[in-house]
Amino acid sequence: MIELYLDALNRELVDVGIPIRLRRRILAEAEDHLRADDGALERFGTPAEIANEFAAEIGARASRRAAVGAFVALGFAGAVYAISFVGAAFAGHPQPDTWPFLAQLALVTVIVAPQVSFVAGSLALVRVLRQRAPVLPSTELTVINRRTGIALVFGLVTMAALALLAFELRDDSAGWWVGLTLVGVAVATPLLVLAALPAAVAARLRPRVAGEPGDLFDDLGFGRTDPWRFAGLVAIGLGLVVFLVAAVQGDPFDGAINGTAEALACFAGFAALGRYLGFRR
Amino acid sequence: MRAEVLRGHVDLLLLATLREGPLHGYGIVESLRSASAGAFDLAEGTVYPALYRLEAAGLLSSRWTKAAGRRRRVYELTRHGRGELARSRDEWRSFANAVEAVVT
Q1: Of all residues in chain B, what percent are helix, strand and coil, respectively (each to 5)?
Q2: pLDDT digits (tens, 9 = 90+) for A48-89
Q3: What residues of B are in contact with residue A54 (Cβ under 8 Å)?
Q4: What CA–CA distances, in Å, run from B80 to A27, A40, B84?
Q5: For residue B52, which residues of chain A lie inside 8 Å, CB to CB?
Q6: Strand order in the sheet with B70-77
Q7: Which of A45, A250, A269, B20 could form a disulfide with A49 if both were Cys (CB 3.0 to 4.6 A apart)?
């Protein structure tokens, strides 16, 4: 009977995503407990109940750790990006419309991907800082894990695009910029991969804890309104900022095009990822 | 006693059970049952996730030992755990006294 119970417990622990090392410990403790007393089996609780309690107990902590780790790694990748971006102004690049196709593709990627990464990573961090309970609803954990995952994936995409850009422009740019960018990417990428490991562990945990996840307004902590209207206002605001920056630099026509593209990309991002990342219910 | 009533107090009960010295999971459950004269009769396996959480929070430490040819994990309070126990006990006494004053 005890062996059957332990087999069932093992299956349930696998189902809820408990890592193998902890699973071995739980099974060893359960066996010791069950063999200590003939009646312990009836009082121990069902395998599903025990496995779910473990997943619930470690789920919130694992998601928190993953979100914070990802944010730190993304912070470093962000610094690499910023240094490369600022340095590009002094690297003697030719005009982008003369670049090879892959470089133009990489340019679009290094503009869009870090924004997605920054928003997802920041909101993952905000959510874990706001939700301090030791056990969180499963849906809440899913939102946190998705935000962390998207932030890391887009962070890695940014690093790959940055490396591609430097490689494609190696003959037309200052050597120091190409070297700086490639070295920065070479250091930041393993950090992002390392941060992805706890994120993968957290995403594998699947406790069944009832409850609704919050939305963007729970993250930001101010007045609730229609999320689509809010996304529209943010998109327009971002577009205006891009336009004004270009206008100040004496290029309002390009600014208008880039600002419109920025606003459309922001709104499209909300439409495509808003529900997945828990910005709206 | 209903499990949901007990749930909010599990941490304090586990810390208090370990104040006399190290115990393994079964020993903790037995000690809890005998100290409460059987009132705290929870699903015994649910003690382990709570022990794991308290250990992760630095309130308990644990180590493997051997007993009757089996591996046995023994838990004990850390210094931080003793401090938390004292704080939680004071908090509980204030709360219990206040409830007692209202309901009697």
Answers
A1: 60, 15, 25
A2: 999 999 999 899 999 999 999 999 999 999 999 999 989 988
A3: 48-49, 52
A4: 28, 31, 6
A5: 22, 54, 57-58
A6: B23-24, B70-77, B60-67
A7: A45
A137 dihedral zone (left: phi>0; alpha: psi -120 to 50; beta): beta
Chain B closest-CA separation from residue A17 CA (Å)? 15
CA A216 to chain CA mean position, Å: 15
The rounded distance, in Å, linking the Cα atoms of A103 and A96 is 8
Across the interface, of A31, A40, A54, the residue whose CB is closest to B49 is: A54
- Mean pLDDT for each consecutive 10-residue tract of chain A (281 residues)? 92 94 93 86 90 91 95 96 91 84 93 92 92 87 95 97 94 91 96 96 91 81 82 92 89 89 90 85 75
- Residue B93, min C-alpha distance to chain A (Å): 23
Q: In 3D, which of A117, A147, A112 has the Cα closest to residue A263?
A: A112
ipTM: 0.86
**Does A235 touch chain B if contact means CB atoms closer than 8 Å?**
no
A254–B contact, CB cutoff 8 A: no
**Hey, are the CB atoms on A50 and B26 less than 8 Å from each other?**
no
* Residues 6 or more apart whose Cβ sits within 8 Å of residue B27: none
Question: CB distance from B2 to chain A under 8 Å?
Answer: no
